[in-house]
Specification:
The protein has five domains: 2-35; 52-235, Penicillin-binding protein 2a (Domain 2), CATH 3.90.1310; 242-585, DD-peptidase/beta-lactamase superfamily (Beta-lactamase, 3-Layer(aba) Sandwich), CATH 3.40.710; 603-649; 651-708, Trypsin Inhibitor V, Chain A (2-Layer Sandwich). The relative contact order is 0.08. A hairpin with a 5-residue loop joins β6 and β7 (219-227). It has 708 residues and is α+β, with helices and mostly antiparallel strands. The protein contains 21 helices and 31 strands.
Length: 708
């Protein structure tokens, strides 16, 4: 009996202990849930959930005529959640029913591996229950659009498990065209040009998304826990794509022809100050040219183009007239007050008028005029430069504008020397944009306009902020002085240093050449002095002279000891090419270009493509041709015996077609329609195909095409 009681006592004691322990555990559970629940839930969420940023779509930069200069293009990363309920229900019936057809479609879309490989990979992901399987990254929108209609995918996210993550890439639509001015949107620390200057408007406001941690370091979005980003605003610039293209090609041609190191070309609308084109080219290590730096905003010694400021200052003092005589001598050099001054070229006669000194760009003549007028008070000369805005930045809406450097011009030997030297373009540094702005004021009858690059900031096509022309100086000089300066600039082209470049022009131009020795340090030559034989050739002016529409500056830095280096030889021809083409597009003063005598063209050409599209182009160009294509879908246009012929192109399904002469779009359409895998090299028209026309084809056979 005693033993039984002892056993029962022990059992009761154990039971009581278990009950007590259970009560403590339950109490702790209740305490954790009620008192500490929020804290531990937060800890859990911090380990399994996190907020990620959703980048706002960056605004688009447009040209004045509506062309996209820089825009964000959507690309897509595609993932699959193989744990999605829609894929798992009924033991994966939906997944298995669509697996084969989906694999075939993926192989046909991406052309990177066979359908059987896709099937194997998808099946492996499903068996491993991969919650964030990476299918493809950075696919373009056209492929994404096709993917959405594929078997299984078209059933929606919940049933298919397909997840599309949109990412934006910034692309400059016209490549090299105004590339540096537009800028490259990378990150806020490395943007340049308009992308940097208007970054706050373009970038928009980022959103947020809640994601849940999955295995292998992957995160899956939490449905409904998302704040949409606010997309950036659009920028409408003053740039005209056609003018930009003309300017850039003319500059590039001159750079290549002279094997030059750097160059810039800017074109401003006279009445408004709008920058219609700005091209900047620098020579690369491989000999090619690229928009690597905004040379138009870089302060340098301007050379003879500064003589306009000297002329305006001297004439404004009222002590000198255009017909006053200046002795320049026959030696090409003379002592001017405190220093010896050299002329770059021999003057036509030993005594010149003031106008002729400017016309023939005499350093001796212009420095003598400055010395005569300002030697006793050089600070007055400085005050004129202030009035011409040569001592401060223009304030254009671009980051990185160089600061001008002017001599102090004190009333001592050093100050007088600086003043005399500055009168013909040295001892002073200004940017090409400042020079352009001053010359534009002459084209605008003395009214100085602020240069600008942006017309408006827009959201959904509606202006949020608009920019209007801004007058910096109503009169940089008296009307009489401006007219005299205009006549001097016109004389430069008629009889002076710019005469050769504009011989035979159908319109009149006013401008000034400039040639300066260069000293400094750069990536081409390291540190170098004036004796290195490197020059800066410039031409700046406006056209047409009677009713100016555009002011343009061309500045090219040559290599050491070039064959040609004068502004009239190197820079003026670029100006001439630009002005010729713009005048041809828009003749001024009611004058039309004389009818050209066109001889029969014997040049050969060869184009291929859809017959209907070829006929549309020939109709728009008023091009007469012999039509032998009739209703054929494909045709080719070529020159034969001094006549233009449109012939049909036979396309047989089982044989390799002839795609030479076609553009990339037509060639790809035709070849992929025949189930060929196409590799493409180059740009332009097709000039070579690896499979010869007429060869029998095998399905999924590879073909390489090269474009010129």
């Amino acid at each position: 009996m005693e033993i039984k009681r002892d056993i029962l006592w022990r059992v009761y004691l154990c039971f009581l202990g278990i009950v007590l322990l259970s009560v403590i555990v339950l109490g702790k559970v209740v305490y954790i849930q009620q008192a500490q629940g929020a804290y531990w839930k937060k800890v859990s969420d911090s380990l399994h959930l996190k907020q990620v940023q959703l980048e706002a779509e960056r605004g688009t930069i447009y040209s004045e005529n509506g062309e996209m200069l820089s825009s964000s293009i959507p690309f897509f990363n595609i993932y699959i959640d193989f744990g999605a309920d829609g894929l798992r229900e009924k033991n994966g019936k939906r997944f298995r029913e669509n697996l084969d057809s989906l694999s075939i479609c993926l192989a046909a879309l991406f052309h990177d591996q066979k359908a059987v490989v896709y099937r194997k990979e998808l099946l492996t992901g499903y068996k491993e229950n991969d919650r964030y399987y990476e299918l493809k990254k950075n696919i373009p929108f056209d492929q994404y659009k096709k993917l959405r209609d594929f078997p299984l995918v078209r059933l929606g996210k919940n049933k298919s498990g397909f997840i599309a993550e949109e990412v934006n890439k910034r692309l400059n639509s016209f490549g090299l065209l105004a590339n540096r001015t537009i800028g490259l949107a990378r990150d806020s620390m490395h943007n340049v040009g308009l992308e940097k200057a208007y970054d706050s408007s373009l970038k928009g406001e980022n959103g947020t998304r809640l994601v849940r941690y999955m295995a292998a370091g992957n995160f899956v979005p939490v449905e409904g826990a998302e704040i949409d980003p606010e997309n950036g605003k659009d920028i409408v610039t003053t740039i005209d794509v056609n003018i930009q293209d003309i300017a850039e090609n003319a500059l590039l041609k001159a750079m290549i022809g002279n094997d030059a190191e750097t160059g810039t070309c800017m074109l401003m609308e006279v009445s408004t100050g709008k920058i219609k084109a700005i091209a900047n080219l620098g020579k690369q290590s491989d000999g090619s040219y690229w928009e690597d730096y905004n040379y138009g905003l870089n302060a340098t010694e301007p050379g003879s183009t500064i003589k306009l400021a000297t002329l305006l200052s001297v004439l404004s003092e009222g002590k000198t007239g255009l017909n006053d005589l200046v002795e320049v001598g026959n030696a090409g050099r003379d002592w001017v007050g405190v220093r010896m001054v050299n002329d770059a070229e021999k003057m036509p006669k030993p005594v010149l008028t003031v106008e002729e000194c400017f016309e023939h760009s005499s350093n001796v003549g212009m420095s003598k005029l400055a010395y005569k007028t300002f030697a006793s008070q050089p600070e007055i000369f400085l005050s004129y430069l202030h009035k011409f805005h040569l001592d401060r930045r223009t304030g254009i809406d671009l980051a990185g504008e160089g600061r001008p450097i002017l001599p102090k011009m004190k009333h001592n030997t050093e100050g007088i020397t600086d003043m005399v030297t500055m009168a013909f373009g040295y001892a002073i540094q200004v940017t090409p944009l400042q020079t352009l702005m001053l010359y534009n004021s002459m084209a605008n009858n003395g009214k100085m306009m602020k240069p600008y690059l942006v017309n408006s900031i827009q959201r959904f096509g509606q202006p949020v902020k608009e920019f209007i022309p801004q007058v910096l100086e109503e009169h940089v000089a008296d009307d009489k002085i401006v007219r005299e300066a205009q006549e001097c600039m016109h004389a430069v082209v008629l009889e002076g240093t710019g005469k050769k470049a504009f011989k035979g022009a159908l319109y009149s131009v006013a401008g000034k050449t400039g040639t300066a020795h260069v000293a400094g340090k750069d990536r081409f030559n390291g540190k170098f002095g004036y004796d290195a034989g490197i020059y800066q050739a410039t031409f700046v002016g406006y056209f047409p002279f009677e009713k100016p529409q555009y002011t343009c500056i061309v500045l090219i830095r040559t290599k050491a000891h070039p064959k040609l280096h004068m502004g009239g030889e190197v820079a003026a021809p670029v100006f001439r090419e630009i002005s010729d083409k713009l005048y041809a597009l828009n003749p001024q003063n009611g004058k039309s270009l004389p009818e050209a005598k066109i001889s029969n063209d014997s040049a050969g050409f060869y184009y291929a493509g859809r017959t209907g599209e070829i006929k549309e182009v020939t109709k728009a160009l008023n091009l007469y041709y012999t039509d032998s294509a009739y209703d054929s879908e494909w045709g080719r246009l070529y020159r034969s015996h001094m006549a233009t012929v449109l012939n049909k192109e036979k396309v047989i399904k089982q044989n390799m077609p002839d795609v030479k002469g076609m553009g990339l779009r037509d060639a790809l359409y035709l070849l992929e329609k025949m189930d060929l895998k196409v590799a493409v090299m180059g740009a332009g028209k097709v000039r070579f195909q690896s499979l010869q026309p007429g060869m029998p084809l095998v399905k999924n056979e590879s073909v390489r095409i090269e474009l010129n």
